[in-house]
Amino acid sequence: MTKKPLILVTNDDGITAPGIRALIDVMKDLGDVLVVAPDSPQSATGHAITINNTLYLNKVSKPNAAVTEYSCSGTPVDSVKFAVVEILKRKPDLLVSGINHGSNSSINVIYSGTMSAAVEGGIEGIPSVGFSLLDYDWNADFEQVKPFVKKIALEVLQKGVPDGTVLNVNFPKLKQKDIKGIRICRQAKAIWQEKFDKRSTPQGKDYYWLTGEFVNLEHGEDTDEWALQNGYVSVVPVQFDMTAHHAIPQLNTWNL
Amino acid sequence: MTKKPLILVTNDDGITAPGIRALIDVMKDLGDVLVVAPDSPQSATGHAITINNTLYLNKVSKPNAAVTEYSCSGTPVDSVKFAVVEILKRKPDLLVSGINHGSNSSINVIYSGTMSAAVEGGIEGIPSVGFSLLDYDWNADFEQVKPFVKKIALEVLQKGVPDGTVLNVNFPKLKQKDIKGIRICRQAKAIWQEKFDKRSTPQGKDYYWLTGEFVNLEHGEDTDEWALQNGYVSVVPVQFDMTAHHAIPQLNTWNL
User: Fold this and answer.
1) Which residues contact A173 (CB under 8 A, 6 or more apart)?
2) Which CATH number is A129's domain given?
3) pLDDT at residue B28 tops 60
4) In this protein, which residues make up the domain named Survival protein SurE-like phosphatase/nucleotidase (chains A, B) (predicted)?
5) Number of domains chain A is built from
6) Contact call for B44 and A51, based on CB within 8 A
């Protein structure tokens, strides 16, 4: 690639999150960077878009800043749409989302705003990657994973991603020297066992907090959960054709 | 099945929407019905869950009503979690979501709150179906599709759904007599070509409305778009293992 690549950066923790700052740091060495990210945390927003509300877009970087940045009042997916439709003059060569504060491995991919932004990029034909670190701490140590972010981004800039997919990359919470490498994985079967924490308002009205415990239901060495528990970076190719093609013949035997 | 089936009903247009009323009408002849649905419209919320805000749950049916109904301040997925974790004593035999006011065929499945509620049911091991009618009108004629809803629900109560899938059912906007039948389909490849409609507040600040045009990128007779355009009800089995298994060998050749 002779021309400097154009890289779109977004996330779901909001534009001020340390995770997106780490991602911008890596990307600005690889190409021209545009940041469009939510103006407030949007964790667990899934593939939500804003159609019943107005949207605001604000340029937050200074006029001569090395990286142009916009904040958006909507969701991660809204941010990607704003970048592609309203701001950029050509399709980016790469979309990166994250680095998320917390895991998006296994079933979390379904709830994740970080990954939905990447999926939106994929739908729009942009090679896209979501990055997440297994550390929910606002001050998580993103320095440790920067070399892996760079390696994966360079590979995608060179090769693209397989047709109809985006990459879901998760990092274990380890020092760089203790990370054993990168593994291509499948999504482990897992669930959240939820609890609702019931409380009362000062006025005596019941309300709830959604909480839960993550339960991994399988332990195959080809799963993302296994990789992460064993010190590897997990890379899962995620598709947005949600058809269960293998189930079609079975359903065709139904009496409908 | 000798025992009366237990049926959970939800949607994303909110508990007062005519679409969910039609669905309840059909289901109350098939089993014991619990309704838990958002207290306000939640279209296009995707698989969002509420973790940074409090949640309210209100019983809205009268004490001796035939059907017990709760409204929830959260998303469709929150509603399913409330029903399963907080209200029901046993796992339902069927979850139905809808009937959505508007299409959830092809790529819309990704954005849809209706389908995310069904997917959440699937993740929790409940045979689950999302129903949508290709008519955005609040006063759409749901009577026309009730016989098809009943037929599909009875089949799922008898047979379950294929492992790891939920069903995405879409109805064409036609009179019952003009609907040609039910077809098992795959998700058509399609995109939304978005536009942002830029306006100014009375105070002179720019804001946007997200709008767009649906573009079907393929016309195979095995797709949901083809079925709907040709007068059939489309049924797509949707999976929540989002791994692109076919892409794993290709990624394993990468230099990571």
Assistant:
1) A133, A134, A135, A140
2) 3.40.1210.10
3) yes
4) 7-193
5) 1
6) yes
